[in-house]
Each structure stands twice: as structure tokens, then as C-alpha cells.
Write a structure and sequence with these properties.
7-stranded mixed β-sheet; Rossmann fold; two-stranded antiparallel ribbon; disordered C terminus; about 30% helix; single chain; globular; 2 domains; alpha/beta
Amino acid sequence: MTAAGVARPAQMLVLGAGVAGLQAIATARRLGAQLTAYDVRPAAREEIASLGASVLKLPGVDSAVGAGGYARALTDDERQAQQDALVESVARFDVVVTAAQTPGTRPPVLLPRSAVERLRPGAVVVDAAAGPLGGNVEGLVVGGEAMTTTTTDEGVTVIAAPNLPATVPRASSDAYARNMSALLGHLVRDGTLTVDLSDEITGAITLTHDGEVRDPTGSPPAPPPDATPDDETREVS
């Protein structure tokens, strides 16, 4: 509010309420934006509400929780229903931040071109899920690890923001060090390394143990790079 009148707060939509999405909500709220967010996981929707943002309700996908608390990949019908609903919902927002990823696979396309085209001139889209496999915005231009900015014919600025932690190396290093310290504190008890495979954390990060190759991800192990077809056959058998 100023002597010249009241400036309307920006309307911001965050798609994907993981670590990056929740941080975007908290930061934008401190800056005065009016926040709305969406996630396919019920627990994430509770986190959205706890930060004071409105929860965007879309038909077609009530819950899509995968392994480890991440969102699972949607079926074709769910994905189409989600995109159709988002096309109708995004036009009223000034800023859209997308941060939805599924581990090891291409990020889901949340904003098709038709949704970006419906944003008003001057609107900004930030794809924090952008990377070598693509991003949440259809037709996104990703320039390797560097941040790229493009402007559509409708005047919408689309920012691909891959590898955001690399833009804040000191904070990233501090966070990584804290994670490693906490992990070592979990594994080393009374000065002794304790490998309890029944433990949720230890079991999920242990790749080999007692000469056995474990597979916490559920995917088959890749053959060695110089394996011959016969070697690959013996490896599988």
C-alpha cells in the first residue's frame, strides 16, 4: 500500500510441493504473494495448507503416492485429466513454479503449450524440475546445466532452472554436510559401524553387503560396460 494506491499482490501457483515447492511457497508468501499450490500426494497437500497457501483441487487424481514418499507416475488417463484441469486453472496466475519430479524418470508434463498460451502477457513460469530428461513445461528449452530464459509469442517468460543447488554452492555444501553428518551418526553407534538392513534408512542406501549385491531401487542391475552377450546371459541367470 502506497500513497498512490494499493498494488495488487501477485497470484502465484506452485505445482509440486516437495522440498523445492514448499520453499517456493514460503519465500513467495514472505514477499507478499497470494499462494495456491497443487500436489497429487495428500500429505503434501497438508504441508501446503500448513504454510498458509490455498490448495488447488483438480478432478481426476485424488492420490498418487509412490515409493519413498515420492509421487508415482500417473496413468495416461490421470495425466490427461490433470493437464485438462490445469489448462482451465492457470490463466488467472501471474507466476507459476513447477517442481514435480519422479526419481529416475522424465518429469511429468504439467503445463502443456495450451496452458502456457493462456497466461497473460508478462506472466512468468519457472520450471525447477528442468533437466536433461526434460521438465514440467511442454516444449521447454533446457541448456544443459545453465539456466535458460525464453519468451513466448504471447509475452510469457519461461525459465528453465536445472540444478538450482549449483547456484548456491555454499548453502548446498552446508546442507550436504549436515545430511552426511546425520547419516554417519545414524550408521555409527557407540563407535561401531552398524548395518541393520531392516532399518528403513540403512536398507534403502545399502548397495552391497556381505558379498551380495542388493537392489534397493527394484531395478535390475546393469551389466558391466565391457560385457559380451554371453556374459550378460550368465549375469541374468
